[in-house]
């Protein structure tokens, strides 16, 4: 580790953040956080017990009434202050994400910008929560429709975007007047801890945001989800875990938002601008080392251009520089852990065994660190696991289609529906795809769709609800209707 890295880690709070105080976990338990590029332990942090998690909820419940009564302008100012602080500390936040998650530093900087934008966007939305007032059709009553904060929320976030997945939930919740308990992923908790420190600096009152870190996710979230004081659960992570949390939430009819897994199709039609399609493909596939819910998972290419697309993309992929994300020019960092490497390996082997051709890469890189070579497999056959499962690694799999109907059928042939990408120069086809693709988001001739001003979310088993955009704040508001006599 460099001196710079050691100094930064010394600034990260290692306790639980409860009721405005940094406290130890029950029994002083700690858990190690590792650098996936080296396997080395970076730092030890508090490992919360179920009792600690309940104390975090106590603090959020205690702060709820006064936070809901805080003037929208004040809530807005605090969020705007947090945005400014994120910008000021962008280098530290970026390095921290690279250390704990592995993404290349340039991409970590991109995430700081993206994650920060939710603070700015929702600071602007905080003062625009409005309702309706009108006479009923009979003329006998006045109808008032207002919006109230939902109440204390539990957020459970994944490891792949340590800052953005936290701000995408915290910012709208605070704007709406909700208090928060957040549990970041145990693999990448440092960014959230550092961000909590910035929220304090921005003037956030004690108890409004509480953070607990733990190696016992299920044991700690379970008691909170069944606690009648909790009013909302927002989860980002795998569909498998989301399904389990939904079942727990169902017992209490708890309000939920679920941002789950994806299996994005990337369609390249015969009329596509292939240069643009290749550029889009590089972004849609290799951003975040392929570990994004929005990562293109299935490249479905018209049979007349498939060989040319494969040739051009393989030339680009073979040049990608692999290494620790802190090194200059690195484009592909490590995967998050050994299991992720084993999974990428299995999916490639299965595809090749079923008849696909390996064009570049295809194997794990020797340690230290959990690296996998940037890979292209073409001619992937129906029935290959790589077409059904989320790859979550730097592996690009190409299959072909014969016409638009087949392309749409293959694209929709999945339980997921988070994002799709399509490259075509035919405007009418573009409009047909908007209607026909079963997807929450569509990138038409672009490889990245995320934006704080846009509603992010999926259909089918990719989730429930939207984050960002005009829609995002409504996940944290309840509609209340009041009737009063007209005279
Ligand atoms: P994961 O489901 O394993 O973990 C997500 C979070 O849930 C972590 O904080 C983890 O500690 C916690 N968790 C795990 N098991 C739990 C349990 N039984 N009870 C309670 N909490 C539990 O997912 P991951 O590996 O961290 O993230 C990758 C997944 O997240 C991928 O499927 C990806 O597509 C998805 N994802 C979705 C979005 C989106 O916006 N739709 C964004 C990012 C990631």
What would you note in describing this structure?
With 487 residues, the protein is of the alpha/beta class. The chain folds into two domains: 3-260 and 463-481, Aldehyde Dehydrogenase, Chain A, domain 1; 264-452, Aldehyde Dehydrogenase, Chain A, domain 2, CATH 3.40.309. Helix content is 39%, strand content 20%. It contains 15 helices and 20 strands. The strands form five sheets. A seven-stranded mixed beta sheet has the order 14-15-16-13-12-17-18, sandwiched between helices. A six-stranded mixed beta sheet has the order 9-8-7-10-11-19, with helices on both faces. Strands 5-6-20 form a three-stranded antiparallel beta sheet, with no helix packed on it. Strand 8 (180-183), helix 7 (190-201) and strand 9 (209-211) form a beta-alpha-beta unit. Helix 3 (72-88) runs antiparallel to helix 5. The longest helix is centred in the first third of the chain and has 21 residues, at 105-125. The protein is globular and about 70 Å long. It starts with a helix and ends with a strand. The structure holds nicotinamide-adenine-dinucleotide. Nicotinamide-adenine-dinucleotide is lined by residues 156-161, 165, 183, 185-186, 217-218, 221, 236-238, 241, 244-245, 259-262, 293, 390, 418, 458, 463. Nicotinamide-adenine-dinucleotide (NAD) is lined by residues 156-161, 165, 183, 185-186, 217-218, 221, 236-238, 241, 244-245, 259-262, 293, 390, 418, 458, 463.
Please outline the helices and strands.
Elements (H helix, E strand, L loop, with lengths): L2 H8 L5 E3 L2 E3 L6 E5 L6 E6 L3 H20 L2 H17 L1 H12 L3 H21 L6 E4 L5 E9 L3 E4 L7 H13 L3 E4 L6 H12 L7 E3 L5 H9 L6 E5 L2 H14 L2 E5 L4 E5 L5 H13 L9 E7 L3 H13 L19 H16 L3 E4 L14 E4 L6 H4 L6 E7 L2 H9 L6 E5 L3 H10 L4 E4 L18 E2 L12 E9 L2
Parallel strand pairs: 7-8, 7-10, 8-9, 10-11, 12-13, 12-17, 13-16, 15-16, 17-18
Antiparallel strand pairs: 1-2, 3-4, 5-6, 6-20, 11-19, 14-15
The protein binds nicotinamide-adenine-dinucleotide (NAD).
């Amino acid at each position: 580790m460099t001196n710079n890295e050691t100094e930064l880690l010394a600034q990260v709070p290692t306790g639980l953040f409860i009721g405005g105080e940094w406290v130890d976990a029950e029994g002083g338990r700690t858990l190690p956080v590792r650098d996936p590029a080296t396997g080395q332990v970076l730092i030890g942090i508090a490992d919360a017990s179920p009792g600690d998690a309940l104390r975090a909820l106590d603090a959020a419940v205690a702060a709820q009434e006064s936070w809901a009564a805080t003037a929208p302008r004040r809530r807005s100012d605090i969020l705007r202050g947090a945005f400014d602080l994120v910008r000021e500390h962008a280098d530290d936040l970026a390095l921290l994400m690279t250390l704990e998650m592995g993404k290349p530093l340039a991409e970590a900087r991109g995430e700081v910008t993206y994650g920060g934008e939710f603070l700015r966007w929702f600071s602007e939305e905080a003062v625009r929560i409005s309702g309706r007032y009108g006479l009923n059709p009979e003329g006998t009553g006045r109808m008032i429709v207002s919006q109230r904060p939902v109440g204390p929320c539990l957020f459970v976030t994944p490891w792949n975007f340590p800052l953005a997945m936290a701000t995408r939930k915290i910012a709208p919740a605070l704007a709406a007047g909700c208090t928060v308990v957040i549990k970041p992923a145990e693999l990448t908790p440092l960014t959230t801890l550092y961000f909590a420190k910035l929220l304090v600096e921005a003037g956030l009152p004690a108890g409004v945001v509480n953070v607990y870190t733990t190696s016992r996710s299920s044991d700690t979230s379970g008691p909170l989800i069944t606690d009648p004081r909790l009013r909302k659960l927002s989860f980002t992570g795998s569909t498998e875990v989301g399904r389990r949390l939904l079942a727990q939430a169902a017992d209490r009819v708890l309000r939920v938002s679920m941002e789950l897994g994806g299996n994005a199709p990337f369609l390249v039609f015969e009329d596509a601008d292939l240069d643009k399609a290749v550029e889009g493909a590089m972004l849609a596939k290799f951003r975040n080392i392929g570990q994004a819910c929005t990562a293109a998972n299935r490249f479905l290419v018209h049979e007349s251009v498939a060989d040319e697309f494969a040739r051009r993309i393989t030339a680009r992929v073979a040049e990608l520089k692999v290494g620790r994300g802190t090194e200059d020019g690195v484009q592909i960092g490590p995967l998050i852990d050994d299991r992720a490497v084993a999974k990428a390996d299995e999916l490639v082997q299965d595809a090749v065994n079923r008849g696909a051709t390996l064009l570049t890469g295809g194997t794990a890189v020797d340690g230290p660190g959990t690296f996998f070579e940037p890979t292209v497999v073409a001619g992937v056959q129906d029935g290959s696991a790589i077409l059904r499962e989320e790859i979550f690694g730097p592996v690009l799999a190409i299959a072909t289609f014969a016409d638009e109907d087949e392309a749409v059928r293959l694209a929709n042939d999945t339980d997921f529906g988070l994002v799709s990408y399509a490259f075509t120069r035919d405007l009418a086809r573009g409009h047909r795809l908007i209607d026909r693709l079963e997807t929450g988001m569509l990138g038409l001739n672009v490889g990245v769709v995320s934006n704080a001003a846009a509603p992010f979310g999926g259909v089918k088993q990719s989730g429930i609800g939207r984050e960002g955009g005009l829609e995002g704040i409504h996940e944290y508001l309840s509609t209340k209707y009041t009737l009063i006599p007209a005279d």
